[in-house]
Design a protein that fits this description.
The complex is a heterodimer of chains A (115) and B (898). Chain A has 115 residues and is mainly alpha-helical. In chain A, 47% of the residues lie in helices and 8% in strands. Chain A starts with 7 loop residues before the first helix and ends in a 15-residue tail after the last helix. Among the domains of chain B are: 85 residues, no CATH class; 209 residues, no CATH class; 217 residues, no CATH class. The chains are: A mainly alpha (115), B alpha+beta (898).
């Protein structure tokens, strides 16, 4: 088990892009909605992660555009690549595997809020 | 969205992003990143408060900085990987720095001057700011010191604003007030400690039991005072200061619980305070201040306390002051004869301890002058860098022409600035620490408040360094920026424009005019304190200061209960002192010249006074007959005191010249009579028998009148005496041991203290004239030095730029004199404009520093004349040298360059 854990921004961006193409602000909103506000990326953190994801080829800039009347021409849309999807699935597997390794112990999860 | 993009925060964000992000990242994502921020900003602004938006901006900006630095690191790692073996960015930076250092060292003179200028600017400025901060702003080093107030009484009708508080009022305040958690009361006084360790004199603080609790300080050993320690008649208790505990008791913790005699009364030592705690001034120990209301006759007796209170939570300063005044009014109604007209006033500790506002302004002005020094330093460095930049335009243009990136073109310019700034800063930090230490040493023993520590404050140092380094870098940036914008082919194709096209001339000229103005102001404001120092050192005090030994004894009233006991002791003491080997003349007094006495009211026989406040007052001293001869002073009219002017004889007095001039308007006062007290006085008339010189009865405070009079020692009851011994030839302190032996033979429990020659007595009164005067002289020299090299640098630079022009002029037949005149004219114009500004500035400075100067007169024309002469001659010299150098230009050489 030697896959490195993905950082929170990278993981969440991949999840957001896993089923559709989104532009930067839409990614932010999607992450906020899914995590109920727990994860809120700053603009620079988002683009820093996007930069790395683009460099490693896990996401790409999309050529497809929505209908022109809905579009803002300044926006860039991002799409997940096959490698990106594979990395995300490996991460999901890793997380499940991690949970599996503690299953026969009598330790219960706790929300950081209860700490 | 369009609107939000143009509102301030998104613009600021975009500005930061442009600066901090690596170029590649910026080009790829910069615009989208800023758009994203703007979009988010607009969305959030609908449901966030102003402070929420501020937080959002802060979070976004900080995150931007963090991410940018991460991106930089990545870029750096990549480039290092890609061109391993070749020079990295860091390496090229390093190269530029060494190149900068090397090119500076090729011209070590100007580099050294710039470094010294920067160092002086940084050092003096930091030092002066530290002094200023330490004296007026650091304040007490106890928890929540800003809620501590000193409460004093006022008497508006007599113009009194800092009256001591009598015990009666203190206890009434304590009972009635609601604004303070608690009120303490204290006064300071010298105390005699006796015990197996021998008699010694210390500075004591008499404090109510709650004082330490109000300050929220805890003892190192034992305890502080308990509630019952200040009750009337409680057994006496003391708390020792750290230094006294360490020196007298060798830091022995067992001393707590032991006893010591304090002013003759047995006292129990209950605790030791930690090191550095000397509240309120330089106290060595604290003695419980017992409630003495039962012992005083009148309500206003013993009005010597200062009251200290800690404001209750939620009570502000104004409310507390109102309440205290309301209480004072109630007391005035209740006890009209004692408390009528008495108000209350709250002060901070710094307000209380600052001698007068004038000193504050004087020192603030000195801070301002060091800022001028710093400005001069910075403009010098700027000048130097400008001059060098002009010479390097070609080099930079070549770099640009062969394809160097702008960054690489600019780096060498910055490199020189960085090298200068670093060297100057290091030296400047040294100067700051040294100067501050010297100043701090000069303050020891002057009775300064204990919290007044003069050390280099790191925030101040950091601030001054930041300003200076930024200035240095900015002055590196100005030429660099212009060079990088210069038209490469233009510069390379036209030799002469290599320098002149930069148009650095204007900036450089403005710098010189500014420098001349600032140096002129500084020099003029230095001249007055310098004169003051000279005056002080050559001052004719009208009394001898070199051969007089002084020291004090203080009798315990327990051991010498009656006036006759005390008179007998002092008579024996004076007799015995006459036997000291080397003693020429011996006297006892309750004062010393320059360290005089309290004022007393008196009425002159035959005069009437309309109102109580018209009754005059003057300094009043008591002396034995040989006092004047011990100081080598002759009575100018009438006679000295004689042995027979004793307690039984008719009261007599000797007045000083100012007294005679002021109250007798030039008539000879000998034979006239006056008596002490106010209109209702029943005291005996004193006959004036002689007149003496003023003898500095006013000390060194120009605000105090010098009028004073002397009465015979035996006609006034005293518990202490200053022993004055005029020593024949040699060192006055040689008699110290004999004097101590004599006092011990009379009373083994009496400490001899304040043992010092008369010269030290004078110094303790006028040290600050010297200390501040020397500081000013240092500032002035620094300013003069910097202005001269600055002027010289700029003029010689402008001459060197005009070499071609000179050559052509001379080839066309201009004589050497014409060339000199041409160059001089430029220098003189700068000088004239600078001087005009400088003189105006200096008038303001001089008025402000006057209180720190010995017998000053701010509008002293000799100082202005001196300043003009110095600045003009230095300025002319700085202009003449380059002017003559210009005449040596070989026309052929000059034209060949064309």
């Amino acid at each position: 088990m030697n896959t490195r854990a993905l950082s929170v921004p990278v993981f969440q961006i991949l999840v957001s892009l896993s089923d559709r193409q989104l532009h930067g602000y839409a990614i932010l909103r999607d992450i906020k909605r899914r995590t109920e506000g727990e994860v809120s990326l700053t603009a620079s953190t988002l683009y820093s992660a996007v930069n790395r994801l683009l460099d490693s080829g896990w996401i790409r800039e999309s050529d497809e555009r929505p209908a022109p009347e809905l579009d803002d021409e300044r926006r860039r849309y991002f799409a997940i690549t096959d490698e990106g999807l594979q990395a995300l699935r490996q991460e999901l597997w890793r997380l499940e595997w991690m949970i599996g390794t503690v299953r026969d112990k009598s330790i219960r999860p706790m929300s950081p809020k209860d700490a | 969205m369009t609107n939000s993009r143009h509102s301030l925060p998104p613009r600021a964000f975009s500005w930061i992003a442009r600066i901090v992000l690596p170029r590649a990242f910026r080009e790829r994502h910069g615009k989208h990143l800023v758009d994203l921020f703007a979009e988010n900003w607009l969305a959030e602004s609908r449901h966030r408060t102003k402070s929420g938006m501020a937080r959002l901006f802060a979070v976004e900006s900080l995150s931007l900085l963090r991410n940018a630095s991460r991106e930089h690191v990545m870029v750096w790692r990549l480039t290092r990987k890609n061109r391993s073996g070749r020079s990295s960015l860091m390496k090229s930076l390093f190269n530029d720095l060494t190149y900068g250092a090397r090119s500076l060292s090729r011209n070590p003179g100007s580099a050294l001057i710039a470094v010294i200028a920067l160092a002086m600017g940084i050092g003096l400025c930091t030092m002066m700011f530290s002094i200023f901060y330490g004296m007026f702003y650091r304040g007490l080093d106890v928890p929540e010191a800003d809620r501590l107030a000193i409460i004093l009484e006022t008497n508006a009708s007599q113009n009194q604003t800092k009256l001591g508080v009598p015990p009666h009022d203190y206890y009434d305040w304590l009972e009635q007030q609601q604004s303070f958690e608690d009120l303490a009361a204290l006064y300071v006084a010298g105390v005699n400690l006796t015990g197996p360790e021998g008699p010694e004199r210390f500075d004591g603080g008499f404090v109510t039991a709650n004082t330490f609790d109000i300050l929220r300080v805890t003892p190192l050993v034992g305890s502080t005072f308990r509630d019952f320690d200040d009750l009337p008649g409680a057994p006496l208790t003391v708390v020792l200061g750290h230094d006294l505990w360490a020196t007298r008791y060798e830091s022995d913790s067992d001393v707590v619980g032991g006893t010591v005699r304090v002013n003759g009364e047995a006292a129990t030592i209950i605790g030791v305070m930690p090191e550095g705690f000397e509240f309120p001034a330089e106290q060595d120990l604290w003695i419980a201040l017992r409630d003495s209301r039962a012992e005083v006759e009148h309500r206003r007796d013993n009005a010597i306390l200062r009251v200290v209170g800690r404001l209750r939570e939620g009570v502000n300063w104004e409310r507390a002051e109102l309440e205290m005044n309301a209480i004072a009014e109630r007391l005035a109604e209740q006890y009209p004869e004692a408390n009528a007209g008495i108000g209350a006033r709250l002060l901070t500790f710094v307000e209380f301890d600052t001698p007068h506002d004038q000193v504050y302004f004087g020192i603030a002005t000195m801070v301002f002058t060091t800022v001028l020094v710093l400005l001069i330093a910075c403009s010098n460095v700027a000048n130097l860098l400008l001059a060098r930049a002009a010479l390097r335009t070609r080099e930079a243009a070549i770099r640009a022409a062969i394809g160097a990136r702008r960054f690489r073109v600019l780096m060498p310019f910055f490199a020189e600035a960085v090298v200068l700034a670093v060297c100057g800063s290091l030296l400047g930090i040294g100067i700051a620490y040294y100067g501050t230490a010297v100043f701090s040493d000069a303050l020891v023993g002057t009775g300064k408040p204990y919290y007044m520590r003069i050390t280099v404050d790191l925030p101040i140092l950091a601030w001054v360094l930041a300003i200076t380094v930024l200035t240095a870098l900015a002055s590196g940036a100005a030429p660099a920026w212009r060079v990088s914008k210069a038209d490469v082919s233009g510069v390379l194709s036209d030799e002469s424009r290599g320098s002149s096209s930069l148009r650095l001339g204007m900036l450089s000229r403005a710098l010189v005019i500014g420098e001349v103005a600032m140096s002129c102001a500084l020099l003029a404001s230095t001249g007055i304190p310098t004169k003051g120092i000279v005056k002080l050192n050559t001052y004719d005090y009208e009394f001898s200061t070199d051969d007089v030994f002084t020291s004090r004894v203080n009798l315990f009233e327990i051991d010498y209960p009656s006036r006759t006991d005390r008179a007998l002791f002092f008579r024996n003491l004076e007799e015995a002192l006459r036997e000291v080997p080397g003693a020429e003349s011996v006297a006892l007094a309750d004062m010393l010249p320059s360290m005089c006495c309290l004022n007393r009211r008196f009425m002159i026989e035959g005069e009437t006074y309309a109102a109580e406040r018209d009754v005059p007052y003057a300094a009043s001293a008591s002396i034995t007959p040989d006092f004047f001869s011990a100081f080598g002073v002759d009575v100018s009219s009438g006679r000295e005191f004689r042995r027979m002017d004793d307690a039984e004889a008719a009261p007599v007095a000797i007045v000083n010249q100012r007294f005679a001039d002021r109250f007798f308007h030039g008539e000879n006062p000998v034979g006239r009579r006056f008596r002490e007290g106010r209109a209702d006085s029943r005291q005996e008339w004193k006959t004036i028998v002689g007149v003496v010189p003023n003898l500095r009865m006013e000390g060194f405070d120009p605000g105090v009148d010098a009028a004073g009079y002397y009465v015979p020692w035996e006609q006034r009851d005293r518990t202490w005496a200053t022993m004055v011994v005029q020593v024949r030839g040699g060192d006055p302190m040689a008699v110290t041991q004999s004097v101590r032996d004599i006092v011990r033979s009379l009373d083994g429990d009496l400490p001899v203290y304040q043992v010092r020659p008369m010269a030290d007595v004078l110094w303790s009164g006028n040290w600050y004239f010297t200390v501040f005067g020397v500081l000013f002289v240092v500032f002035g020299i620094a300013a003069l030095f910097m202005a001269s090299v600055g002027l010289y640098g700029v003029l010689s630079f402008s001459v060197s730029r005009r070499t071609n022009e000179m050559g052509i002029r001379m080839a066309l037949g201009a004589g050497a004199a014409d060339v000199v005149r041409l160059v001089l004219r430029q220098g003189v114009t700068h000088l004239g404009i600078g001087l005009a500004f400088g003189l105006v500035l200096s008038i303001g400075l001089l008025v402000a520093v006057a209180p720190l100067v010995f017998e000053s007169a701010p509008f002293d024309w000799t100082v202005y004349a001196g300043t003009l002469v110095v600045i003009v001659s230095v300025g002319l010299l700085a202009s003449v040298v380059p002017a003559f150098r210009a005449t040596t230009v070989d026309p052929v050489e000059a034209l060949r360059a064309e």
